[in-house]
Amino acid sequence: MLREWLGSDVADISRVGTRIDTFDGMERVPGGFGARLRWARTRAARFRSEFVSTGTPDSVDTCDLVTMPYPTAFGLFRASTALSPFLSITNRMLVIRWRESDGRRRVLLFEPSDVELGRKTPYFAALGARVPRPLHSLLVKEHGTVLDHLARLRIAPEEVDYLMFDHLHTQDLRRWVGTTAPQEDLGGVVKPLFPKARVIVQREELAAMAELHPLQRPWYQAATFEALRPDVFLAIEGGHVLGPGIAVVATPGHVLGNQSLVLNTSTGIWASSENAIAAECLTPEHSRMPGLARWARTWGQEVILNANTLETTAEQYNSLILEKTLVDRSQADERFLQFFPSSELTAAWTQPGTAPTFSHRAIHHRG
């Protein structure tokens, strides 16, 4: 069923913005992952200088959605020596607004997770079933829904043009884009809350969802996509400049079709994805968390991956280096970079040894 769905009317993103060809051919670079790492650094530096000239968006706002537990062994891949088996991450949505050259206003929501339906993701459903009910409120804190935040920002759902995720783990989009068939758990056919919105996604990730590998299945809700209209998706292969100071760049590895949001703002260039869960994971030599600096020093690794899936770990490492090369240093503390994890490590007294040395917490920009 899903294979047939993917073969139909998924739209192409060519109607939006400008395609980025700077990173084309990375998978064909001879010499293995080490040669591709050097290639990624060089190409990222080239794109960085080009990207600044595209301008800046009108605004970027940050909206906290949910703080929840996450295995330390996933989030701080092999490096952490903290005793706590879990840490906390805060999932956030970015709201980006800009104008096209003809004056049309655009709104992009990056990581607009439906937290309620996301709990049905197989991994988190199994984890939740093992946690005693009284502990749920201690470990999980919901900060506000996508619609609550948009109302605060005075953005009507009808004004939203694009939805984008770094990857589709945990996502259930049925309430956002509507369904073509009745949904038993949602009370019938679902009308879209964002009637104009299109979902920007790498074509490779959509294709992979037709036949998930056993290592991927705990993290996807693939069946929920069967009731969606294929034309709600804008499929992309590689990178694309969406608007002034707004780009999507392919960063495969965490999943094959992983992608990162890149923004040029008043403080310089940012990148956002879930390739790492803390800014210090890109400069672990400055981390005070137990184990990170020692791991990086011992093994000569300059980044610490978020590795709940291991589809192609070396490729994910190279992608995070690409992001590291693109971004500017933080104005708050120049030891750390303007990498904004879409799910950021958050201190919790219940999880000793996992408090971040440095947190961004938000991107705020007014053009």
TrEMBL record:
One of its GO terms (molecular function) is metal ion binding. The keyword Cytoplasm does not apply. Its cofactor is Zn(2+). InterPro entries: MBL_superfamily_lactonases (IPR051013), RibonucZ/Hydroxyglut_hydro (IPR036866). Keywords: Hydrolase, Metal-binding, Zinc. PANTHER family: METALLO-HYDROLASE RV2300C-RELATED, QUORUM-QUENCHING LACTONASE YTNP-RELATED-RELATED. Belongs to the metallo-beta-lactamase superfamily. This is Metallo-beta-lactamase domain-containing protein. It comes from the Bacteria.
